[in-house]
Amino acid sequence: MLSRLYIQNIAVIEKVEVSFEKGLNVFTGETGAGKSIVIDSINAVLGSRISRDLVRSGTSKALVTALFEQIGTQTKEKLQSLGFEPEEDDSLLLSREISADGKTSCKIGGRPATVSILREIAQSLISIHGQHENQSLALPEQHLAYIDQFGKTAGLLAEYQHQYAHYVELERKLSQLQQDEREKAQKIDLLSYQIQEISAAHLRLGEEEELQTAKKKIQNSAKILEALHISYDLLQGAEESDGMLSMLDQLCGQFDRLEDFYPQMKSNRILDFRYELEEMGEALRDALSDVEIDPAELEQIEDRLDLIYRLKRKYGSSIEEVLVFKEQAQQQLDSITHVEELQEKLEQEKIQSEKKLLETANQLSKKRKAAVAQLQRQVGDELAFLDMPAVQFTVHSEIARPNETGIDRMEFYISTNPGEPPKPLGKIASGGELSRIMLSLKNVIAEGDQIGTLIFDEVDTGVSGRAAQKIGRKLKQASANRQIICVTHLAQVAAFANTHLLIEKKVQNERTFTTVHSLQQQERTRELARIMGGENVTSTVLASAQELILQAEGKSNGK
Predict the structure, then answer these.
(1) I need a surface site. Which of 46, 61, 343, 482 has the fewest CB within 10 A?
(2) Tens digit of each residue's pLDDT (9 = 90 or more) over 81-126
(3) Residue 435 neighbours by CB distance under 10 Å
(4) Measured over all CA atoms, what is the biggest interatomic distance in the chain, rounded to whole angstroms?
(5) Which residue, 357, 360, 345, is CA-closest to 168?
(6) Which DSSP symbol is given to 293?
(7) In terms of pTM, does the model score above 0.90?
(8) In sequence order, which residues have a C-beta less than 8 Å from that of residue 467 and are 6 or more positions away?
(9) Burial group, residue 443, by CB count within 10 angstroms (0-12, 13-18, 19+)
(10) Half-sphere exposure for 539 (CA within 13 Å, toward CB)
(11) 354 DSSP assignment
């Protein structure tokens, strides 16, 4: 269950810490006091999408932390599957920080986590019913999800959806193969031409770089030849001058004459250097014999580069991409030219896939119909308790073509008066009826799961009087087995609270602040009186408020 909630810098809330207890926890407060902000904060720490506009103006970040105690086996297993270890005392601390620039960070038990992981953990901790869900109940496409939730079909539904996705993919491939024959012939001609054009070029990886280097060399061959000749003459000598090798020979002779007088002047050091230069001279001679100025070769290179350029313009930005294009084109051509063989194979796959799909769909449908029988009975019992004994709740079911949810088309129907045939829920139910039907559904579905906390945000919309009191009593009963947190604007509901929390908005120094505190007995009576009578709280209204509390506790003689 949710034990403590800490909120900092969320909208009008500067800093609030709320303690929750077992049983029924009720929030009340004037319109605009911040009840929805508390629910938004809980949603935030559970991983829901949030806007950075929630961060209190003038602050750099907001923080929400939630401490859960006595977490169930389902939550522990989920934690471990995601790489987190539960605390030894079965507690769990979740936190989420939201920056004013929209960045967010999450932690589970003090360890960093992602929003998606936070959301996965939250699914086993809390179920929140917001006001918008009443409207969603009027949409037939939402009803099947409630039936699946009640019937615990998640595993079978996931298996079916995987098979359905495979079946749809096979249909797509077959449709693609069964394209117009003329279009197919045109595609074959185009692919064949493209493959032939690229193949005829005999491209090699790295070829373009080699050609560019050779082109540059030929274009500069005159300069290269001149530099080679000068270098060779400097080493070997020309007609009117000695080369470096000859001069070094002369230098060696002079060093030999000096060696007796200057031992450090040894000719062998000069000889080593001369040998190296002699090798360079041989390399220069070889290079001179290789250099040829051939305009025809340059033309061939430029023609080849032009071909590569034209192919790159058509098929890719590099030779590698052009070759990849050719390979892909060949695969497409093979696929088209072998279409009959492939089509026959896919047809057989589709038959087998459809057979398997329908088997799973029928299993899913059978499980749903079994769930519907129980759901109708249990929701009917709940509605009877909530002052709707004449309402007949049924599920209208039809078999449809397989789609992403199965072969079932299911919609909630109700009859509000005896003798009238059931009609679609969304067309005839009032706001108050939708509220009570949703509460009934939530209670029935919750009985079969391990979620420890249910949150109802103004589930009593559109009801009053005796019906409101019945809703309060039903919430009280449901809270015997799990924690329930309820935002209400009705005194008849708030009277049943085990823990009554008041949300108030105050203005100090031209800034708005929202506070939350738990009410004691006398404070509860005055708050219920305020809800019932507005600002004019008379002794009669206070007495009525006290009577409501006594009735809720079963202590009133007028119960």
Answers:
(1) 343
(2) 988 888 888 899 999 999 988 889 999 988 999 999 999 888 888 8
(3) 27
(4) 140
(5) 357
(6) -
(7) no
(8) 386, 387, 388, 432, 436
(9) buried
(10) 0
(11) H
